[in-house]
Each structure stands twice: as structure tokens, then as C-alpha cells.
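FAQ: What does a multi-protein file look like?

Like this. Sequence, then C-alpha cells, then the next protein.
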Amino acid sequence: MADRFVWFRSVSLRSLIGKSPRSVAGQVFVLQVALVVLLVACAVIALVLQSERDTDAEAKRRSIAVAQTFAHSPGVVAALQTSEPSKILQPLTEAGRKSAGVDFIVVMDTKGIRYTHPLPSRIGKRFVGTIGPSLQGKVYTESVHGPLGPEMQATVPIRNNDGKIVALVSAGLKVKNVTNQVDRQLPIILAAGAGALVVATGGTALVGRRLRRQTHSLAPEEMTRMYEHHDAVLHAVREGVLIIGDDGRLLLANDEARRLLELPPDVEGRHVWELSDLDPETVALLVSGREATDEVHFAGERLLAVNQRPTDREGGPKGTVVTLRDSTELQAVSGRAEVARERLKLLYDAGLGVGTTLDVIRTADELAQVAVPRFADFVTVDLADAVLHGEEPPGAATAMRRTAVYGVRDDHPLYEQGRLIRFLPSTPQARGYGTGKSELVTDLSTATGWHAQDPERTKAILEYGIHSLIAAPIRARGVVLGMANFYRSEQHDPFDEEEQSLAEELVARAAVSIDNARRYTREHALAVTLQRSLLPRALPEQSALDVGYRYIPAQSGVSGDWFDVIPLPGSRVALAVGDVVGHGLHAAATMGRLRTAVHNFSTLDLPPDELLSHLDDLVGRIDQDESTTEGAAGVVGATCLYAIYDPVTRRCAMARAGHLAPALVSPEGSVTFPDLPAGPPLGLGGMPFQTAELDLAEGTQLVLYTDGLIEDRRRDLDVGMELLRDALAGHPDRPPEESCQAVVEALLPGRPADDVALLIARTQGLPPERIADWDVPFDPAAVAGMRVVLSEKLDEWGLSELGFCMELVLSELITNAIRYGTEPIHVRLIHDRTLICEVSDGSSTSPHLRYAATTDEGGRGLFLVSQMTERWGTRYTAQGKVIWAEQALPEAAGKPALAPSWTDAALLGVHGAGPQAPA
């Protein structure tokens, strides 16, 4: 309905009238519109008069009804007989007037003196109007000019019980209120008239439009001339036209149709099936009456394009109109155009379908699949071995790997995929690889150079029906990467030079994708090699933790997740897990720098919070340095968790910088996530880090991981944490390696979008019998006693061979602590993979190694310690410092420890527990 309204609104008066006012359609339209306007105007006037008459009659009826109703109301006669009837009747008349919708109700005596009136000032005055007819018992209506203005009123008598007229009552309306009723109806009447005018005009327009379409807005002489021109054009066009009636008779055939179909002169009026010279399929089409568009039919030696349409679509007579076009000469051109279109479509599809991934083998498969069967029956792709590994190929075609094989059948005798083929110089493949130009072999049976490659196989290929070959080099950026070979079998004609050009274009488009995949393979291999070299290749030997780990790279390649296990003095072990945001070489290189920095800072034996503070400063300097370098990108974000576990005290100190909290698996199998203070990510600066210390029972598993393990776009972080809890819980005796595998299988069913580092360490405590500690009095004489107890403990441990060296080391360390340190002094001896001696005191003064002069009496103590032990160093605590020294065990060294002679000791300036160089 909306479409019809829009169409009707768009029709202009000019289009309805026609091109010429003298046209039949224009004259009929003007006459009809004038008649419609006149009829509508008369109808509107009649409606207005009828409305006024009806309104007046309604006003009179209402006035009479109200007056009679009040005259017969109970109590009115009784009120008239009272001494003051106005007091009783005035309220009644006002209430009745308002409820009845009239303007006044007036009660008067038989002389016309008012008892009531809407205007109280008019009470007691004579009624304006005629009361004679009413005194005679009649109902009288009239229009007067009363106190309220022009009024229409009705007067009726009031009778007592005896039927005597005792008073009169008059009710009515002001004339202006009656007129208002008419005025309110007038818009409706006018709107109805306008609507009738629009509808009538629209109907007239439709009639005029149809008439105009049938007469084409032409005058009689113009219509005559039009038909003359129609006949002239119909017989002059170079396209055959036939008009066939509903009964199958040929009503019209122009000159071109007669020529194309070789029709006889008296063909018009005859049935189509009587034309025996026409092709049967053409006759069947003309008789059927169905629609046809560019259907090809033969007429003798001509090839005709036939179009057929019905003639009754616009209300015309039933039948069909047929147009015939000679397309004999265009058929060959259209065939070549179709071939060109198919080739362009092939190139277009190759642009979309080849190179969807950065995988060399997959890209080669896509090249082979896009060409079969639209261009070739079989396609093979041979690439140099170096290309498959991301390298540039050698210049000579010594060997190529068959990377892809695809064909219309699978039982072909061509070389199988994966085979290394060494092409002879006489083959088209070797020539094309060497020259960089494609080779066309239209008949393989005569190609002797190709036969020499493998006579038995070439014979099988020819017997299979393969007869034509195009060998096109895969050339990109001036380098030939391999060869693409297109074969055709007996189902198709041999390749020609145009198809050779198409093959070159097809391979050229694929070559860029293969080269991109090769470059990506090389860069990816370099990045993976770099990342693998930056991650731990093997975990160090230590006794404090049983460690298992997993590193899973992301789908997009290398990233910045890392982990580390670092042995520390005193049998302690540091665990580190970090994550550098981003992917690629920059993230991997940044990860390597951070891991190296953690190793360097750990040699200082810093607490976790201090180590993270130094690491935070380092990342800030990296960002500052790289922000000044053009094209360099800073560290977008980096997190780290650093923990130190002491197997002697079974305490673990840890701090984190923007990293996820670790998980703890108790020896009973329950899983908790400790409330570890969360520091800011590395590089932000300004915020201190906090260290938390936890007491871990022996057998507790400490689980460190990066966010790629639990975070995923398909699940919330809380869900990942619960999955991790479920994977760890209930298996307290499971080895860390098996726990790592179970966690990976539960949380990472496929290749993750982000790389993952997972480190699970089960704590182990040193047995108390392998630890000895003593408090040392702040007196140089106590050194001798400590030598004795040390010797006894070494004999108990079966390490008597180390007694001389360790007594000497202990003497030097205690002497330095007494001379240059403060109380309290404490000695601890640890029997682990090495023998560790620790001397602590309350001073924070750091000792240092120096070379004493020949004339110096002291200063050789620490030098002696460094010569007698594997390692030594200093670490600071909240109570002071600890100087430690490690001595390899005899079984670890592979031979007994050799004690220096007293002569050597004397040369070093050692005299028992004598004073040493100041720290």
C-alpha cells in the first residue's frame, strides 16, 4: 500500500495530462477532473446545510425535552404554591440546566413573571418571549433576543393535579452554542470532501494514465505517423522480430527474420508448426511460449541467439514476441573470451588461495591444488632443500626435493612426494632452473633429454597417458627457488605458448608467497635458536629441590617467557620465572638480558626484594636507552617472580614484580595460593618491592608459572586458577616432571596462543646430622677450641682428609671476625654436595681480597682462603654478614684432597690463628 501511495504521489499533473493538451488522454482527464471537483463541491455544500438543519432540530428537541421534563418533575407544583417559590425552584433549575446541557431553565407564573433564571438579577422580571400558546396548553418554540443574547427556547405549561395551568417553564440554548456545533462539524465535512476529491481525482488519474499509455499521448494524426515509423523501423533493423499469437499463428515477421529463417512470402497467418524448414528445436521453442534468453539454435548454417517474451505482461493480447540475432561470427570470439575469463579467474583464485600460511610446504601444496584440474591434470612442485630450511638455494640444479604432488588421480607414475631428485642437465627442469625461463614440451614422447632422466619411469609416464609438460621456474627476487611442473594427459590438448605464459604468471604469483614463507622459516628458526640458547639447557645440580619444568612456545613463535634455577651459597637455591610482553626477536632478546641480569645479581646474594629493585632499574635504563634510538622499541612490559629456598632452615623468601602468585602443594596434597605482596611490573619504578618468607615442610611443591598457562580468551582468570588447583591437588607423591605433564594436559589441550613457562620444585631438607653450628666467644683464644670441634665433626662425617684445609680456613675467618667484626660470632658447617663453612658476625663491613707486600706482616688471610677452597664470598643479613667458603668433597673431586705442607703455609705467612689482613 505504501508503494502505491509513493507511486501515486510521484505522478505529476504534466505526466497525467500528457505531452500535448490536444491528446485524447489530456482532454479526457481535464473533463473528468472538472466534473469531480463540481460534484465534490456540491456534496460539501449539501452536507453543511444538512448539518445546520440537523443541529437546529436537535437544539429544539433538547429544549422541549428539558422543559417538559422539568414541568412534570415532582415537587414543582408544590413549590409554586409556597410563599417563596424562587428559593426552592432556583437551585433545582440550575442543577437541571447544568445536567441537561442547556443554557437556561426559566420558571414563570402565568403572567410571565420569572421565578428562576441563570442570572439572579433577572428573577422577578417579565419573561422575554411569547407565552400565549403555552397558556393554551401548547408547546411553543421560538428564537428571541433574551438576557443571554440570541436564544432558541421552548415554553411548556405546568399543570396541577386538576389539569389547570398554574405556571410556565422555558428551556433553551444560546444561538452561538448551536452555531458552534455546526462549526465543529465543518472541518470533518471539509476533510471528508477533500478526501473524496483526492480519491476521485486519483481514480480519474488512473483512468487518464491508462488511456495515455494506450494512446501514447498522441493526437490521431500523430498516432498514424507513429505506426508508419514503426513499420519502417521494424523492417530496417538488423535483428529478426516475430510476433506469434496465442493460437500459434505467426502474426508478424520482419524482413530480417524472413532472411535469417528463410521464410516464404506468405508466412504471416500460418501456424508455426507448418514451417517445415525450421529446426525442430526452434519450432518447439516458438510453440511453447516460454521465456527464453539468448538461447542458441541452428537455422541452416547459421547460429542464432533467440530471445522470447510474452506480450500480455502489460494487459496486451496473449502471445509471444521473438527476437533473432545472428551470432555465428561472435561464437568464436566469445569462446576465446570465455577462455580468457577462465584464465583470469584462475589467476584470481591463485592470488586468494596460494600463500594463506607462512609454511613453504603448505604453499607448494596450494599452488599444485589451484591448478588441478582447471589448467593441468597433474602438478608437481620441486624445491631446493635449502629453501625448505629457510636458506637461499645454490646456483646449480644439483638436487631438488619433491615438495608437492597433486593430480586428478592418485595412481600416477610421477616421483612421489618427499623424494630428492637430481635432474640431469638435459631435462627441462634442469634447463629451466639454470636459465630462469620456463620450458614448454608439447610432446613428451619426442623429448629425448627428458627420457634420459629415468627411462623406465618416463616410459611408464607416457603409457599412463601424460603427453605434455610445462616446467616453470619458481623465481622470486632474482633467485630461483625450484620448479613447478604442469602435466596434461589424454583428456586435454597439449599445452601451447599462451598457456605457457599463463603458467609463468601463475608460478610468479606463487613464488612470492613461497619466498615469503622461506624467509619466515629462516627468521623463525633464528628466533627459536636464539630463544633456546637464552633458556636453561639443563638444570644445575643441587640438593635443595627436585625440579621439573616445561616451556611451550606460542603459536605465533618466540616470546619472552623464561625461568631459571640458580644454586646459591649455603646449599640454597634461587628460582626465577619471568615474562616479557610481546613476541618476536625483541621480546626474546629482552628476556635474555633480564635472565643474564638475574644471574649477575644473584651472585651478589641479594634478598629477593633488592634483586627486583636492581632489575627494575635495569629495565628502566633499557627503556630510556632504546627510546632514544630511532626505530627501537622499549620493553612494553615485564614481570618476574624471584624466590630463594634454604634447605637448612626450610624457609623460602620470595618477591614478585607484577607476576602471578605461585601455588603451593602441601605434603598432604592440598593446594594454596599464598598471599604474596604484589609489586609493580618491572620498569615502572618508584614503588618498593616486598619480600615474604614462608616456612615450607619437606615435600612441599612450589609451582611457578607464567600467565600463558592460566589466562585464555575463552575463559576467565579465576577459571584457570581453579583448573590449575584441580590438576595439582591430590597427588602429593607425584614427581615434579609428572606434575608438569599433568598440568599441561589439563590446561593446554592445544597449542597455546601465548608461550608458557612452568616450574615445579619439590622441597628437600638437609638432615640435621649433616649440619653443625656453634656460637664462638668474642676471644682470639676461642680459635683453638673451634679447630678441635671442627676436626671431631669432620671425623664423624668421614671427611678427615679435609681437616687441615678446613681448620686453616676456619681459623682465618674466625680471627678476622673477632678482630674486625662485632658480636655475636656464629659458625655453621654444612655437609652437602660440598663442605660449606660459614662464619657470621654482627658487622656489615665487607672483607676484600688483596695482595700483601713482602714486608707486610699480615693481609694474606683471605688470599689463603681463596687458594684453599673452591669458592668463597660474603652475603649480608639483617643481623650482619656471613662469610662462607666451599670445599669440594674428596669423592666429588675424584681424588683425595691434598693438604699444603707447613712450609707452604709458612711462605704464605700463616701462623696458626694469627691475625689476618683487615677486611
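And here is the next protein:
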Amino acid sequence: MNLKLRVLSAGVLFFTGQLVMAQQDSVKTTTIDEVVVVGFGQKKTVQEVTGSISTMTAKSIEDVPVASVDKMLQGRVAGVQTGAASGQPGGFSNVRVRGISSINGVTTPIYIIDGVRVANGDLTTNNTTANILANMNPDDIENVTVLKDAVSTAVYGADAGAGVIVITTKSGKKGKPRFNLSFNTGFNQQAVESHRGFTAGEYKEYLKDGLNNLLGQNYTVDQYAAGAFNNSTVLSIFRSQADTNWADIVRKDGYQQNADFSMSGGSDKFTYYASANMFDQNSIVMNSFFKRLSYTTKLGYQATEKLKITSDFQISHGKTRTLGEGGGFANPMLAQYFNRPTDPARNPDGSWYYSPTNSRLSNNMFNPGYLLENNYNQAGSLRAFANLGAEYEIIDNLTYKLVFAPEYISVEEDTYWNPIHGDGYAYGGYQRTSVNRYFNFNIQNILDYSKKFGMHNVGASLIQEAYKSDRKFLRATGITVGSPELTTLSNFVVPYGYEGNVDISSRYGYAVTAHYDYDKLVLVDGSYRRDVLSQFLPSKKAGDFWSVGLGVDLARLNAIREIEQISLMKFRASYGKLGNQVSANPYATYSFLANYDDTAAATYNRVFNPNLSWETVNPLNIGLDLGFFRNRLTLSAEYFNKETKDLIYNLPLSRAQGLASYVDNIGTLVNKGYEFTLKADIFRGDRNQLNWSLGANVSTLENEITELYGGTVNTSTTTLRVGEGVRTFYLRKWAGVDSANGDPLWFINGVDGETTNNYNLAQQAVQGSFISDLYGGANTNLSYKGFDLDLQFTFGFGGKIYDDWASYTYSDGQYTLSYPGYGDIMGDYWTPTNTTANNPKPIINGNKRSNSASTRFLYDADFIRLSNARFGYTFDKGLLTGSGLNSFQVYVMANNAWTHRFDDRLKFDPETNVSGYTNLALPVLKSFLFGVNMSF
């Protein structure tokens, strides 16, 4: 391409052919170093960093219509994969930083808010799915920094192996009071097209072919309805006049809205920030929602020249209604494939239909419409968090900081099944109530020293940290209620069980960090931390973790500094030792939960393993950062190799030993790959000029087990073996359909070549991984005369998704009479006149195990998604004169608006591949919103 483009404004780029140059006019510019937040709230300029750090600013996630920050990371940060197997409002995303660093251990990063560790993930227990991070208001976030390598994370020691996500919240700044008000509202739809159910006519047609193939007959639908096959179930289906679309029965219009108000300001002595937020998100399936109310106040007070006091209080309440997943008959997503379309949804009088004899549908399934109106599974979460700090300058360049940060979380859950229909019918009504109370606290004592000696800059920190989590859990269940209108536990007259326990875990550690640089030309970082974990044996409680990092910025050499176009040329390298979060316990214990003649009876609970030790991670990182034209164009390239040793795994035991498994260290795995990040400000000007920026990140990942002490571990669908990843599918390979007779075929050796229609003769083989090995994102921003367009794309290639329910939904007749399955099969199953179909001949009771686990139900998860699109207009300040407003903006936004799946067979959200399996969960949503932002 021969492109010539010239833009005459200060500091913009010239493109002439393949040369890129920067021209400056006489406008004076001031360079402000970009600052990033690293461990324990400490700050560094980008020029001082030797580790691997990626940052999302508040602008990049502004107004994104999701409930929690973990859902914002996909495609915006190199090396980070996220995905949600469910579209549950307020649910959590699986987040992976540079791969999967454990088999049984924790694989999600820890979350740090303003230097303090906080709870994350799903804290519920009553089959409710929630996310405690969703209780935090995303509009309070200033930026999100992902720490990925040893020198960035080792200061967090024992828990840093899966990465660290550092969230910095907004603070008050010196100046007059400033008020901000934002609001958006819109509607939700299903993000991607899923499998459809059968219509009544299609079901009868498919069932007719399955019966004919079983009986060796050629009856028509009318003949079966007339009694050609004298079976009561068959007759009732073929004679039914109903045609129910069960998906329509459970669907509704999804909507959501968000309102946020904040104020900030301050003086030389005192700064303040306060916000209030309301968020309401509803799924497209009835009785599923998440609501949040939150309030934050953050204060800073310069008490004396040496003493600064800060406080941050956050309180929020979330309410979640969730729906069952998987094979539960109450799962509304199951109903569209398992309920017969020949059953009516309602009676002639408009009431919900079910059999008066057994309160079931004709195949013993439930009517989801009735259940969604009369049952519920909900959780209410209260989170109160405080971050109290005092910072005292002992002498010049030496500062002491004290942090005390308690976190109180209460999760109250209620499950109610009415006594009329559904799961509660057999119990005469069912109610289960539970309370989960968490009290976590974090104490830090930090001594910071920094000094500049000419060209030499030195810094050091001494850190003491203690963290404790205290959980108390209580649950009670009652059955048999006098009226379906009575839903609280005290109205259920028969006790049906109770549970209660206390879980306490703690750790404390000491750390030292050091930094040296010579004029930011040569940089050296190091850290050491010793952690002590409560649950290990005394000889194994302590772990030592460390890191070292080195950087050289050649752009600061005089010879290169004279090249005006080059502003950054930094080489970085780091290595160290981290720990992985573990929940395993090495102690032999008894459980006294059994009742033997009203005496507590003991059973074995754990097997003693005195050799159980930490999982440790050794990450190597090598990076190159390039900046051109005063960093108007930047490029980062990194190689990482993250080795996890002493993997913890549950090894199987024989039944004679009384337990199914015991915990041991069993091997080593490696995650390695490359990351590339590009940012470019192509045009930069004021409001009335054209502004255009581009960004992109691409990551590769290779996940491999390198040692496995006990040898290969195979299941019916997965394998753990040397040379493969920890999330590897191990399946028979589908070879298609025999065009001559409609039989299923598999490759005998699991790869290629000779085929067989005998499932038992086909061998299992490695068939790919859950994990995408190429993933990333791209974004662009265009603005002109107040109009602004933002687009964010994400993509992933190389991962696989397995349909865990396909043995029922693509059963080829085995379960069709009871559970119809996917209606997509119509027109694509073998018949004498359709011999090239992709699905075998249906035979009632099954066709040679055609629906057993194989790659027939394994799909490529390759995708490209427009994850967020935003178009807005900001009014000119001149038009706001006299209105009292400083700014006013209106916008429209779409989230997950477009998704391209490269595998035409895939009918699930492609980001499910982070989990690997589908579970008939709520569909992932796409949202369309209108919003307003104003400040005054």
C-alpha cells in the first residue's frame, strides 16, 4: 500500500509511503509520566516498571452495562481470558491470567482494592449463583491493573500464582465541588442463537421415523394416531392437538437500568469522594434478575505536614434470583428440549396445565411456567467494607503506613418449592433457608523509603501483612406447609435437616521490596516474602517467595535519544517463585455427622498426608517495550513461561480404604506463550478536530503437563497426561454416518483411517483443549465535533466446547419418546432419501450407542465478537453556558451486539470454552441501552 496522508497540527503523525514521522510545531508540550499501581497500593511510573503489567482506565470501561468488574476484562488486557458459562444476571466470570496454573487448586486471580485483598467469586451455598464482586459499583473504579509476572506479584506471596488484579477506586481531588450524574436504561436479548426445540408436527414426524425403524414398518403419522402401534404413550402423543413452544413459555423481555451519582472535591487539607448507585438487570427468562444498591464515601485528611489519614467505606446490598441448571426438571432451559411439545402449557381456562393425578406432565417433567410464577431461589447479600489508613512521614523520604481493612459479608439464601406442582409436590412444600456470614480483615504495616541521588534512584519497602477469614454457616430445611401462600421457614411443620459450621483460615507474611534505577536507563527490582498458612502441618506452614526484575531503556542513551522519533526502547526480564492458593488439608480427621441410635457415629473424613506442601509457581517473563513519537505509538511484546510445581490433586483410593480419594502433590505443568500489545493515537486534537486511536492485543498460550508422578489419569471425556494440558478432551472420534444404512461411525484408532459402527471397538484419543491458544481484542475510538464512537472487539481461537447434555438431546431415538431433544435435527438425519445427513438413523431405544460421548458433540469455540459499541454526543460547553452544567453527554450502547462463530454447528456462547462444558444454563445476554452523563 502506498499511503500519503499529511495532518497539520501539533504532534500528529505523518504517513508518507511506509515511513512514519512526527512533526512538532511551536506549541509547548508538557510530558506527564503515566503512573501504574502495583503491590499494596504503591505507585510507579511506566518508565520504572520491570514487570508485566496491563491497565484498563476508567474511560475504557465507562458505562459498560455489566454488573461486575470481572466481566469487563475480556479482550481489553493481554494475557487474560474470561468467560461465563451462564448468563445469570449478577453472575461471575471465570478469569484466567496466563493460563491455568493448577488442577485442583484455585485458578482465579486474587482481587486487591486500593491495596487491600477482598473476597471474590460465588459465596452462595443453596444452588444460588451469585458474585460478591457484583456488589461493588463499577462506576467507582479509576483503573484496573492486572499483575502477571513474578516481580509484579511476588509481594503477594502465597496467593499470587494465578495472577493479581488491582482495582483503584476514585478519590477526591483538590478543587471546588464537582457533581456527576449518569443514567442508562435498555433491554436485553440472547447474545447468540441456541438450539431450538421441536414443534409438535416435527416431533411426531421424527418419532414416526424412529418407530418405523424399530418396528421395520412404514406407518404414517395418521396411522400411528389411529392405533397402528398399540402403546398408550405413543397414542397420546400422536393424538394430541397441542403444539407448545416451551421456550416461549419461559421467556420475557429483559431490561436493565443503572443510575449513578457522585460528588468530589477538596482543599489543601481535606478531600472527599462519595457515590450512590442503583443497578437492576433482568434476564430474558422469567424470575431471574440481579439488583444492587451501593454507597461509597472516601475521605483524605492531611492532619499535619507529616500525617495523612484516609478512610474508605463501602456498603452495598444485592438481591439475586437464580434458576436451576443441568438436569433438574425445574430448569426452564431444560424444558424446551425435554418437555414434549404435544403437552399443553395451559388449561382451557388459562390456568397452568399439569396432570391432576400426579402433578406432572405426560413424561413426568414439570411445567416451567407454573414453577417460574410460584417457586424461587434467591440470595440477598450485604457487603460492608472499610479501608482505614494512616500515613506518617518519619523523616524526609521515609514513610510509615498503617492499613486496617475489615470486610463483613452476609449472604442470606432462600429456596422455596410450592406444594402443588414441581419438586415441592412430593414434600408437601419445601423451604430451605441459609445464612453465610463472613468476617475478613487485612492488617498491613508498611515502611517505605525512596531517595534520589543525582542520577541514582533507590527505593525499598518493608511490609508486614496478616489476613484472616472467619466464616459461619447455618442452614435449616423444612417440609410440609399448610398453604402455598406461606413461604417462610416457620410455616413448614416437619423439620427436614439442618447444617452449621465454622471455617477459619488465616495467613500472615513479611516482605521486603527494593528498587534501583540509574536515570531510568537501568532498572533493578527485587522482592522477598515469607508466608505462613494456618492449614498446613507445622513443618510445612511457611513458604518463601521471591522475585527479581531487570530493565534497560536504550531510548535514554544519548545516541538513541537524539533520534526524535524513538521515545522508548526498554528490555525487561523477571523471574521468581510464587505460591498458588490452596484449599487442601493434610490432616487425618473424623466426621461425626452420622446418627447411630442417637449417638454420634464417626466416619473417616480425610487421609493423613504429612508430605503435602505448597503448589509453587516459577514465572519467567521477557519483554520489549517500544515507543515512538513521544509514545503516540507504543508496542509491547512479551514471552512468558510459568511453571507450576508440586501440583495438588485428589488421588483415588480403593473402596476398602473407606474414602474415595486423598490429597497429594502429583506433578508439574507449564503455561507459556507470547503477548503483543499495540496502541496508537493516529489523530489527536481538540473537541472540534478529528481524533482517532487504535489498540489491539494478541496472546498465545500453550498449557502442558510436564510431570505426572502417578501416571496418566483418564475419564470418559478428559485426560491428565504428560505432554497435554490440564483441560484436555479425551474422546472417541466421530466419523459420521454410514450412507448405506444410517449407522453411526467412529474411527477405530481415535484419529483417522478405518471406521467402525461398534462403539466399544473405537479408541479414545486426545481431541483438543478447553483453552483458546490464541486470543485477544481490538478497539478503536473516533471523535469529531462532539461525536464519539468506541468499538471493542474480542476474539479467541483454538478452544473447544463439549455439549454435556447431547446424549439426551441428540439421542437418535434412545430417549426421544420421553425427551424430544433438539429440533435442529429435522432435515439432517439419515433416511433412505437423505443418505448424506450428519446425524444417524433414529431408532427408538437407540442406534448402536450413537449418542455416547464422542467428538460428535465437541465444537470449535473460535469466535470474533463486538463486545461493546458506544456512540455518543457531548454538547459544546458554549451551549451549556448559564445552565449550571459543566458537561452533558448522551449516548447509545450495545454490549455483545454481534458474535461470529466459525463452527456452524456451535449453538452455545463461544466464551463458554473457559469452562469447557455446557450445562443448559441461562443464555448469555446482549444489551442495548440509551444513557445520559452530566456533571455540574
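Q: Is there any per-entry metadata?
A: Some entries carry free-text notes. For the entry above: The CA atoms of residues 174 and 266 lie 4 Å apart.
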